[in-house]
């Protein structure tokens, strides 16, 4: 990457804070039981409140309702941007400067109220800030943060998400042998968490989630994320990955599910997740956790999802009993 390219990118990003990344977006269709159940199937979610005939939407579905989806003629490189959005031109300009790949690496989600079938979600978004160029394992790039406020068309606040996206110039991909092709879940009793003691310092039993192509693709489709890095091996390798990678919405869904199992379906109020390394087919996520604090009915739980010695994601969840 040349110094002039880096300088042009930094100049572009310096002008973003406070500007809307996307225009006000109203979901194309209402929240539905079908979409909720599809999400639950992909995440292995079994909580009755989310899986019965008249479900509440799991909190970790918050972002997906206003995603543009897979529309005819829409570029798959556009991420969540739609024609006319500032984010569309920012992505295109950065790609032209060599920073052609993107990956969401951190989310801070606050959940204010439940979504139910029939609700129509509205999202309003603005850039917060951007870093200078950083060296990462995937390549050199910039971390860009934005804040999205979610509500319903009736004006009820639903939640807030602060997301960090890495825009980077892909380094050479790392080739590796293909992993196991099985799509079966673990059957040794550790595929789901069990309720534990909610006292500070208490640790929960580990949960093991096989990372398969089916799991990654099902999660991406259920969360309406059609970016090719999550389903197209050739595209993923061209963008610095050894294989397709799990999207952060699936990671959030799996972690939210496990935290719910550990805490006896306590209400999730906040989930802060940081991705440390990609998760690809052939790996197994080993999810561990512990209670950090408990004040009244509010419990803070930390969770870590690792593949062997490599940490995929770390999260802090706040729940209310």
UniProtKB/TrEMBL annotation:
Residues 172-184 have a biased composition (Polar residues). Residues 27-158 form the FAS1-like dehydratase domain. InterPro entries: FAS1-like_DH_region, HotDog_dom_sf. The lineage of its organism: Bacteria, Bacillati, Actinomycetota, Actinomycetes, Pseudonocardiales. Pfam families: FAS1_DH_region. This is MaoC family dehydratase N-terminal domain-containing protein. Residues 172-192 are annotated as: Disordered. It comes from Pseudonocardia aurantiaca.
